[in-house]
Amino acid sequence: MNYLTRRLIHGIMLLIGASILCFLFADFAPGSFFDEIKLNPQISPETVAALRSRYGLDQPMPVRYVRWAKSVFRGEWGYSFAYNAPVRSLLAVRAGNTLLLTGVATFLAWLIAVPWGIWIAAHPGRGIDRLSMGSTSVLLSVPELVLALGLLYLVVRTHALPVGGMVSLRFDQLGRWSKIRDLATHLVIPVTTLVLANLPIILRHVRSSMMEVLKAPFIQAARGHGISKASLLFHYALPAAANPLISLFGFSMGGLLSGSLLVEVVTGWPGLGPLLLEATMSRDLYVVVGVVMSSTLFMILGNLLADAMLLAADPRVRMQ
Amino acid sequence: MKTGKMMTSKTMTNKAKTRAAAMVLVLLHGIIVFGGFIAPGEPASQNRDFPFVPPTRLHFVDAQGHFHLRPFVYQSVSRPEGLYEYEESRDQEYPIHLFVEGPKYKIAGLFLSSIHLFGVEAPAQIFLAGSDNYGRDQFSRILYGGRISLGAGLLATGISLSLGLLLGTISGFYGRWVDESVMRIAELFLVLPWLYLLLAVRAFLPLHISPVQTFFLLIAVIGSVGWARPARLVRGVVLSARTRKYVLASRGFGASDSYVLRRHVLPHTYGVLLTQAALLVPQYVIAEVTLSFLGLGLSEPLPSWGNLLANLQQYNVLVSYWWMFAPAMALVVFSLGYLALADAFHKRLQSVTV
Asked: Do B204 and A26 touch (CB under 8 A)?
């Protein structure tokens, strides 16, 4: 079987496993959405029971799971108790927003980290290298939450950027270019937070894997042939150092998504994070499952993308 | 010859680094454990006349320009014109005294005492990190909150590592279908983004329960969610240790499974476990802080670094009272210490195995 097909099937198995895990957790749960309603004396116990059976909460776990799986195939992803709407309609917009935020952040973080990491790997022990290593180790120990709050504080004090939300109130009246600019200015704080949080890890990996490769004899040989430094670094060393970095790209999605959840909540970005928090507070079961499944889906897609890149970058993987 | 010398000097510096990081961490934890002694006040005692007092300034030179060897403070009085604005009344100096009588507390949670490291005479107050919206001393709250946040982090790490050690050992030692199934489940836990997983597990647990229950519930949730990575690492070590020649030899002499595990296999895992512990503790402290910040963890009046930081969710607090960031500083300092330790452990592990 083809390498990518195998990875795809593996990803789908993981998704199914994750959904079963979610339902198992939910099965341990002592309460449900309708517990709050039960406390309301105006609603009779019969009504609550009717509601429960309408949403299938009185059924055993496997039955509920099958019902949910069927609704996933219908494109509904279950039903939200709080919004009284199919979960997918809630998820679609939110997931798009999260994807925009994490996508931009990932792109920028790699765009900055790769050349920077290559540069300091080529000059180990110099001032710039030490400075980078020192500052990233400090940055590593500052949690995203603190980063986001700190940036927010700076921005609020200086009034440099709009704070909160994704677009301004008058967004609909703007022209196309002003719309893009408005969105971009709102992106600055959350994206900066995510980039600052993820840059240290990527930078360190780029540096260490480049340093490993630069020690190799073929680099010495290339240098002996008088190949220019830029070409040496980017055409000779980088492709050889790329493998662990591509794997890191897949792994780092999890951290990025978790960080994004927090940043979204703190800066008011209407992504999956605030939705999950809200659903957690109101015990909106299928919304929680839906959000967790979408984040898992992103993660698996990130890994698949990494697999595809690995296939393109490394002939050894193609030979398997 | 030259490389050998370089190697020793490198390992020496790593040893010194490990020691330095460990010493700093012991000191920091000591401060938290003896927080009751170091804190000038009680974490819960309110002073509603003094909300949002900025950090008290320590003075050495008085209004007349005289230098005092013993630092002193001025009393903070609220400005009549502004809300929550304070100024120092320069009429009288209140010198800082060491080992003063104060509210009762328990030394390290064991012995009752009322001696505090430092304090000033009433009516002056000393707020080293300012006061919060109820006029509670933030410095004391950070110290007491550290007990909860760090306690949660350490206990949750204990749970994760025990689970990881148990499952990783079983998986690596017995192999075959046990290994296969444990590792598949581990993969599932690893593929879910941790914060989403944490929130999802939290979502299915009761929200309104007593603080003590919440504390242990949080620890259980955080600890049990993170078992997969240590389990994988332990499995790898066990797998390679199991087939070593001396293990086969001891088997030949009729050693039992438990003897081989105890004597030959598990000692190999300690390095990995230590490194993981140093990595997990700050992560789990941050997890507790995150959950409490989001309102899903410990709630007032119990202080934890997370719910102290949660004050910053209010716009006016974020804008006007910068000292409410103080708990974040504590968090960063602890993370730095633990990460330095993890780094040193990791290097040691590599130098041993290579």
From this structure: yes
Q: Are residues B160 and B100 in the same domain?
A: no
Query: Which value does ipTM take for this structure?
Result: 0.83
- Judge: B322–A153 Cβ closer than 8 Å, yes or no: yes
Residues B125 and B147 in one domain: no
Residue B136 lies inside a defined structural domain of this protein:
no
Q: Do the Cβ atoms of B194 and A254 come within 8 Å?
A: yes
Q: Do B177 and B315 reside in the same domain of the chain?
A: yes
Coil vs helix vs strand at A17: helix
Whether residues B125 and B145 fall in one domain: no
Q: Report the residue of chain A nearest B318, measured CA to CA.
A: A153
Rounded to an integer, what distance in angstroms lies between the CA atom of residue A254 and that of residue A260? Answer: 10
| CA dist., res. B96 & res. B118, Å (int) | 7
Torsion, Cα of B124, B128, B132, B137 (10° steps): -70
User: Which residues of chain A are within 8 Å of residue B310 when distances are taken between CB atoms?
Assistant: none
Domain limits, chain A: 15-87, 94-319
Domain residue limits at B99: 53-129
Contact (Cβ atoms closer than 8 angstroms) between residue B180 and residue B79:
no
CB distance from A9 to chain B under 8 Å? Answer: no
pTM above 0.90, yes or no: no
Report the domain count for chain B: 2
Nearest to B309 by CA among B333, B334, B326: B326
Q: Cβ A14–B200 below 8 Å, yes or no? A: no
- Provide the shortest C-alpha distance from residue A38 to chain B (in Å): 15
For residue A258, which residues of chain B lie inside 8 Å, CB to CB?
Answer: 193-196
Strand partners, B76: B88
Q: Along the 354 residues of chain B, how does pLDDT read in single tens digits?
A: 344 444 455 555 778 888 888 899 999 998 888 877 887 877 777 777 777 778 877 778 877 778 877 888 787 777 777 677 787 777 777 877 878 777 777 777 777 777 777 777 777 778 878 888 787 888 888 888 888 899 999 999 999 999 999 999 998 888 788 888 899 889 888 888 888 888 887 777 776 677 788 888 888 888 888 899 899 999 988 888 888 888 888 888 888 888 888 888 888 888 889 989 999 999 999 998 988 888 888 877 788 888 888 888 888 788 788 888 888 888 999 998 998 898 888 888 877 664
What gap in Å lies between CA B220 and CA B287, rounded to an integer? 12
Count the alpha carbons within 13 Å of B102 in the hemisphere toward its beta carbon. 26
Q: Which of B77, B75, B138 is nearest to B307 (CA)?
A: B138
Q: Is residue B48 part of a domain?
A: no
Query: What distance separates the 2 farthest-apart alpha carbons in chain A?
Result: 86
Clarify whether residues B174 and B100 are in a common domain. Answer: no
Portion 291-320 of A in contact with B at CB < 8 A? 291-292, 295-296, 299-300, 303
**Pairwise CA distance, residues A268 & A152, whole Å:** 11
Q: Report chain B residues whose CB lies below 8 A from the CB of A281.
A: 207, 295-296
Are both B145 and B280 inside the same structural domain?
yes
Of B96, B129, B162, the residue that ends a domain is B129
Is B243 domain-assigned?
yes
Domain co-membership, B159 together with B98: no
Are both B263 and B299 inside the same structural domain? yes
Asked if the Cβ–Cβ distance from A149 to B335 is below 8 Å, we say no
Q: Which two tokens stand for residue B328?
A: 């974040």
CATH code for the structural domain at A94-319: 1.10.3720.10
* Residue B32 in domain: no
